[in-house]
Structures are given as C-alpha cells and as structure tokens.
Known about the structure:
This protein is α+β, with helices and mostly antiparallel strands. It has six helices and five strands; from the N terminus they run ααβββββαααα. The two termini are about 25 Å apart.
Amino acid sequence: MSRRELLFLTLKGLLAWLALSGLVLFFGEGLITGLFPLLKAIMISMAPDLSPGLNVVKSAQSQLDYSIELSAWVLRPIYLNSSHFIPPSNVLTSSAHLLHGFVPLVIEGSMLLIWPVQGWRQRLLLIGLGLLTAVLVVMATLPALLLGKLEISFQDIAESGSNPRAAPWFVDWMVFCEMGGRWLLAIATAWLCIALQRAIL
C-alpha cells in the first residue's frame, strides 16, 4: 500500500468515525430506547433479585448529552455480609453515558464502512451484519456496566464485615470491558462480519 493510499484510507476512517458518532449523538436516544426491553431481560437474568427500570436522562449542560439511568428495585434481601443487607423495596441507581455505551457500534461500523468491497451488495451485507453484531455487543456489555456499577457501590460495605458476599461474575466482565474489552469485541465482530460476507458473497 502506497503512502497516498494509506493517507486516503485514514481519512476515510476518520470520516466514517465522525459520521457514525454524529448519528449516535442525534439518534442514539431513540435507538437505546428501542433496545430497553432486551436490556431489561438480560439484566433480570443476570441479577434476579432486582427489577430493573431504564430511562434516558438529558444533561442540564447540553441538549445532546444523554445518560442511561438504571433504577433497580430490590425484590429480595441482598446480604452483603453477616451483618449488613439491602432490604426489599429499596431502589438502587447507576448510570452510564449514552455515547460510551455505543462505542462498539462506532468502532465496528467505521471498520466495515472503509473495508474494500467489489460491489454495493457486499457493502449492504456488511452493513447489515455490522448492525446486528454491534447490537449484540452492546447487549453483552451495557447491562454488565450498569449492574457492575451497582455492585461496586456497596462492595466496600460487604468487605467491611465477616463472610462478605462474593462479587458477581458480571463485575469482572465489566472491568474487562472497561479496560479495552469493548474495543476488542467490536474489532473481533467486525472481522467476523467480513468473514461471513466473504462466505456468503
């Protein structure tokens, strides 16, 4: 690849990144709201002692800055250690930045938009596969982020007493995603889409 081709590919990647970031900025609220039923179902399977409620909250500083807010009702006592527990009917809250939650979609979409293809059918297939797999990655990461923040908020209390409650598995998954795993998943799913597209067309 020549220096000119490399520069052109880099510029295409930056433009794709900016375009997808802009789409998420303007239409992310509607997209995430449509995914709420799936997100809630996943959270219930991950934390059956909680009844999750999700809402999109607009920032007071910017009309385009949104956060996803989790309000989780405690259904059964959650024992943190031998002497502390969270009683039922309490509401636990956490939040995540909307753009942060859609990082996998932007990364994967940018890769697929600049990937060289031989026709519009291949491009459409790549985009379709990319949308599907990006949503799956969001489903695999965002619930763990919201629930993991809840767990971390009272883990110190659990550790302060005897027989502390073990942190659920999704806390480790959240840490992995926050340490770069979200980027890795997005890149891996982009390569999967490319392999599937080559196998189909």
